[in-house]
Structure formats: C-alpha cells, structure tokens
Amino acid sequence: MTKKEKAAFIVDKLEQLYPETPVPLDHKDPYTLLIAVLLSAQCTDERVNQVTPYLWELADNPFDMAKQTQEDIKAIIRPCGLSPRKSAAILELSKILVKKYNGEVPQSFDALEELPGVGHKTASVVMAQAFNVPAFPVDTHIHRLLYRWTISTGKSVEKTEADAKKIFPKELWNKLHLQIIFYGREYCKARGHNPNDCPICSAIGRKNMK
C-alpha cells in the first residue's frame, strides 16, 4: 500500500469512527479557547475542563483577566501543573490583548505565536478551532500515531506536521487532527498498546511495533 493509499485508508476509517468532532476543551469564544489550550500543556483536557469554570468566575475576558494578580490566577490553575509559568503567561497575554488588540484574539499565526506562553501548536489549535483556518496541530499523541502508521518518520513534531500537511487534503486538516486525537485515546494509547487490536495499526502499522 502506498503512502497515499494509507492516508486514504486512515481518513475513511476515522470518518467511520468519528463523524462528529466536538472540540475537547470547553470554551465559549476564542479567548477562553486560547487560555484553555495554554492550560492543556502537559495536562489532560479533562483536568482543564474541571479547572476553567473556576477561572472564568474570576475572569472570562482579557479586560477582566488583566486586572487580576498572578497569585490569584495561579491558585486556581494549580491542578493543571506548571502554574507559575502558565499564570504569568495568562496575565501578560491578557494585558497585550487589551493594549494591542482591543481585547480581541488575533487571527494570525505570527501574532498568536508572539503572545507569552503561546507556541506553534497552541496557535494552530486556536486558528483551526476558533477561526476555522486550516491547520494541523501536532501534539505528542498525533506525533506517536502518525509514526506508528508510517505517515511520518517520527523525528520531530515539526517533521510530523509537515508530513501530515503534505499527505492529507488541506480541507480535512481541522477535523482530522481531532479525529486522530480521539482515536489515539480509544485505540492507540501510548502504553499497553497491542497493534493487533488496533484497527489502523493492524492494517498499515509498522512491523514489530509496540
């Protein structure tokens, strides 16, 4: 099977399993999505969704968040881990949004990546899920699966993103990256993974793979 045929197989299988792709992080607008994605670094979506309601009670927009203290933010988001760094980023990026963008989240990869605590993956998620701009955010899970499925070499997340964008149709990127995340959680976990029990790995996965 060629790489293009494998990509088509993956798309068809994921569409069968996950025709609907709700955004895993609870949010109500681009700003709350941005903050939720920032919090999700090295933290589960489930934990973030447990924490953010309390954060939104404190402030759910950049104008109100910019008026808070870092200590108050940190106390709420501590369960998400890395709270000193994340709270500093949330406070500072909120001030920048107020001062530079009139409280709006910029609809640009470059502008987003200039914000404190916002890397390329976070910017990609916001562009895809908040603004419907084609992007292919690659986290460690997508990185793992596309290596297992021989779509990418697995040398880096940057290489995996480039490989994914090259092989999958652009109009599918935003939905497909969520479908891969959902699939990884259900069938293709990092630990205890049996390729023979995995619908995709059993068909096109790397040989002698765990």
Automatic annotation (TrEMBL):
Query: What SUPFAM superfamilies has UniProt attached to this entry?
Result: DNA-glycosylase
Q: What EC class does the entry list? A: lyase
Keywords attached to this Swiss-Prot or TrEMBL record, sorted alphabetically, are: 4Fe-4S, DNA damage, DNA repair, DNA-binding, Endonuclease, Glycosidase, Hydrolase, Iron, Iron-sulfur, Lyase, Metal-binding, Nuclease
Question: Can you state which reaction this protein catalyses?
Answer: 2'-deoxyribonucleotide-(2'-deoxyribose 5'-phosphate)-2'-deoxyribonucleotide-DNA = a 3'-end 2'-deoxyribonucleotide-(2,3-dehydro-2,3-deoxyribose 5'-phosphate)-DNA + a 5'-end 5'-phospho-2'-deoxyribonucleoside-DNA + H(+)
Q: How is the cofactor bound?
A: Binds 1 [4Fe-4S] cluster.
Query: Which superkingdom?
Result: Bacteria
Q: Report any one BP term from Gene Ontology.
A: base-excision repair, AP site formation
EC no.? 4.2.99.18
Tell me if Iron is a UniProt keyword of this record.
Answer: yes
What GO molecular function annotation could you give as one example from this UniProt entry?
DNA N-glycosylase activity
Q: Which cofactor does it need?
A: [4Fe-4S] cluster
Ranges for domain HhH-GPD: 39-186
Q: Sum up the protein's function in the record's words.
A: DNA repair enzyme that has both DNA N-glycosylase activity and AP-lyase activity. The DNA N-glycosylase activity releases various damaged pyrimidines from DNA by cleaving the N-glycosidic bond, leaving an AP (apurinic/apyrimidinic) site. The AP-lyase activity cleaves the phosphodiester bond 3' to the AP site by a beta-elimination, leaving a 3'-terminal unsaturated sugar and a product with a terminal 5'-phosphate.
- Give the family per the record: Belongs to the Nth/MutY family.
- PANTHER family the record matches: A/G-SPECIFIC ADENINE GLYCOSYLASE/ENDONUCLEASE III, ENDONUCLEASE III
Name the record gives this protein: Endonuclease III
Organism name: Luteibaculum oceani
